[in-house]
## 1
Amino acid sequence: MDHFTYKQGKYHAEDVAIEKIAGEIGTPFYCYSTATLTRHYNVFAQHFSDVAAKICYAVKANSNLGVLATLAKLGSGADVVSEGEIRLALAAGIKPADIVFSGVGKTANEMAFALEQDIFQFNIESEPELELLSRIAQSKGKKARIAVRVNPDVDPRTHAKISTGQKESKFGVAMAQAPQVYALAAKLPGIDVQGVSVHIGSQLTTLEPFQQAFARVRDFVLELRGRGYVINTLDLGGGLGIPYGQGEPPLPDAYAQVAKRETAGLGCTLIFEPGRMLVGNAGILVARVIYVKRGENRTFLIVDAAMNDLIRPTLYDAYHEIVPAKETSAAKEAVDVVGPVCETGDIFAEGRKMALPTADELMVFRSCGAYGAVMAGNYNARLLVPEVMVSGSEYAVVRPRQTYKELIARDNIPAWL
């Protein structure tokens, strides 16, 4: 459920008409719903209220400070993958004791910063990373609390580019190699082994891969304890999918039942890293139609948003529901929704059945709260679009539209020119 809907024929974000925002700040723009963020977080968290658990939002899904501060106020921690994300989480009010640091390529400077903040846990993904963390921690007189991210070699049945839990993935270490990584960790100064971590992929739409992964990790925790390791935390990652207008993934309560059943009796603090599940359907992208172009066999709906604003359809062949900002009963026809970027791949939808709008009408791209604005760029020297948050009948610009002055100021012309 989200809080984007038609009211009296006009599309609204909570109680604010989309056309009102568009008229005041222009298009394209992203819009996030506070009520939806709140509902999604509370629905997820309530299913783990009966166990020791930390909910650490995956900041990579949407790192806007307004979004982070909303989740922080609800009690969320943060799963981060860079120093920048740590700084954003702290700026939003998330406590270091609720931050876990994931990622396959942590640098020495990032490790040092995280140690200075005394974050809760580093999720280690290789022996070289572990050795570097030991050296940095020792030089600072700190102890780095760690879990090793293990790959249970489970097929998550999701898109290849967001599948992470198989043994040949760049992420984590294969289950068979993990014992030697723990043996190394136990010997290294500055390292405090406290847990195990796993994350098998993103946008999973069935529970079976989770069940398989959690069962294998449970057995591994018991194996480690049999070897004398004290394992107090179990990071089960994220990955629960959302409906993008096609199919219905499992609900959070069903996911929670699997997670709690497979980890029952371990006595570990469970860590969850939901990202898309919290923010995906809490955001939309609003664009304006520039032209309706009729070809010999195809009709193109050319809008002012492009692949540099929302890259998911181009990168992942992702589906986003697209609806008009004004309700209509007009007959539908097949159209290609495309952007103005000079790439054939700048396509949001091909052969999509919809009521044909006219130039200047507003179109709403649903389920854009995750991996939308956060992956945007300046290709074709296009400006980064603004981000808006709505709460009830109010809205605020939480990231203004980039200006051409700011775009040009990024570069320096060398002195010899």
Note: Residues 161-166 have pLDDT under 50 and may be disordered.
## 2
Amino acid sequence: MRGLLLTAVLVLLSGVIMAGNIDILGIRSAEYLMELSRNAVTDCADGVTYNPAGLAFMDDGIHLNFSGQYIGKDYTITGTFLGATEETEVSTTKATPFIPNFYAVYKTGNIAAFGGFTVPAGGGSVDYADGLFIMPLLQTGLVQAQYGPTHIAIMSEGSMEGTSFYMRGIAGVAYAFNESFSGAVSGRFTSAHRNYKGQGTFAVVDLATGLPVGTTSADLDVDRAATGMSAVISVDYMPSDKINLAARYETATALDFKATANVVSTWDAIMPYLANGAMQRRDLPAVAAIGAEMQVNDEFRLGGSANYYFIEASDQGEDDGIDDAYNDGWEANISGRYQFNDAFAGALGYSYSNYGGCDTTYTDLEYNLNAGLLSGGINWQANEVFDFTIAGGTTFFNEGEGVGIYTGESFDKKVFFAAAGINASF
């Protein structure tokens, strides 16, 4: 029992809040939410994050892109609390009101210098006001160590909050070797922050007699922070003026999270990684990406792309916060963009993400369910300098079922995205 609880807390406290794949937030521009396939983009500064090599084919001058994203969430877990007989639901609907992204490109001749700021992972919070099903199980591990194996902790009230926010700076250069082929290299600095806050009040019950023998409580308030560097190599090839192909490879970002405990938690006895100054490794995985765009005619453009996430290689051991049952993840995207006239264009896109998870990776704070995303948007070319984009999308998640200590629990998500952005070229 103690070993199972330790494993549960390890995974629970490293749970991702919102991701495009495990720990990766794929939507990093309003243009991405509009089209979903951006790995071969060559006409917008958001190529800094999606296709750096393609920036070498932009017009000479300065190109800027800024966007903000809203994420609406409805996460629901259905299960039965320890000591209860009726199934119930716990849920969080805490939205993420604003995620910013900014990119800048200076193109002259065959060279493009670029930089940017983005939120590559996390970017949100969950707030389970009624607590989580795992909490009385965790407390029971402590109660049995004190009172004996016939005793359990029944939660009378509790809550659990989690926040995850990663910030990244990017800088690099792209070079066009000729009219058809270009390459780019860039470096990235990532600063990651996670916070977990919870509390619970429990009645201690002796199962042998069915009588309460006391009360106990638990508090949790831990900040975790890490920084890391990574690199990106990107190439772009235009076999004709109608077709563009691109590929990039992102190295893994090594992140050693250091804990700062704001309160002394009794859960330290089960999980020493809650203690002040404790370290835990959880890397952002390496990514391999490909993309293609085809200009079907003057009005219509098709796009397709795919990303592969090397999650298994990010597994750094039993205490890394990544469940060993994770496989590598992947996603595939397709989009169509139509130019209605000189001022307005519209697009639709669809993406399917496989997170590499399974029933043994689902926990109360980390259940990466495979999902489809349908989105679309409108772009308005206001004048020769400025254009504006608005986009929205909704997800279709598979339902998950828990096993082990999560047997009897089911997991469901609903997520809505909205974004607005502005481009400027001088």
Note: Helices lie at 2-12, 30-35, 47-50, 134-147.
## 3
Amino acid sequence: MGKDKRRLKISLKPAPEIIETFIMVLGVIMVWRGIWHLLDTYLFPENELISSLICILVGLLLIYLPDKNLKQLM
């Protein structure tokens, strides 16, 4: 058997794609948190049930509108 000359390259330096993905995920989480806070403050703050139901309905509508299909939820 011959020796395999290939070596596994391990780097402790993160790839640029990983850093970009992390930054995008962080941005999405921050936007989500901000929207969540605004909805808690201004969308029926005295009635949590109605606020939650409206958010669910609007969210489903936003998911449905682009392709008129909710298959991705199943």
Note: The two ends are 51 Å apart (CA to CA).
## 4
Amino acid sequence: MVISAAMIKQLREATGAGVLDCRKALEATEGDLEKAKAWLKDKGLAAAAKKADRVALEGLVGSYIHHNHRVAVLVEVNCESDFVARTDGFTTLTQNIAKHIAMANPQYVKPEDIPANVLEEAKQGFVAEAQAAGKTGAELEVEVEKKLKKFYEDACLVLQSYVLDDKVTIGGMITQGITDLKENIVVRRFIRYELGA
């Protein structure tokens, strides 16, 4: 199949991918636009996964103060180079994460950050709730796993749905940032202040 410039342009406008990547995607999917979009997305996720082990020591400390001056956030977001840290894309990502933290109030960056005693206490509570509801055996395990998944999503920044677009998680935004900026990006830590809390 002949891949036309119009097809490449259409895919490029839909995905923001480079011309060569769009051509490769269309060639790999025999000109199917939807399959080409999925191909590019998979390629981006694979590329982001490869960058996950790279050291990220540069970056920014982003801040956000809510308009009522009752909530403020500082967040450290790291990347691999000072050059990327100064780009509009990285700055915007950092600001969006800070704003999200102010509104969603996560407790931890990722599931691995949850202390073992906090996790164990939550599990015991979920087991007790499931048993009180009459669940036993495999049913009980499924119920506890479901509640644990929800607990992680509520408590961990990277698993939360972005407050301004619930179709994407913060982790998904970071992965997209890695794909777009071609460097590893990591939320190192954050602190959220709330008046009287």
Note: Strands lie at 58-65, 71-79, 161-162, 165-169, 186-194.
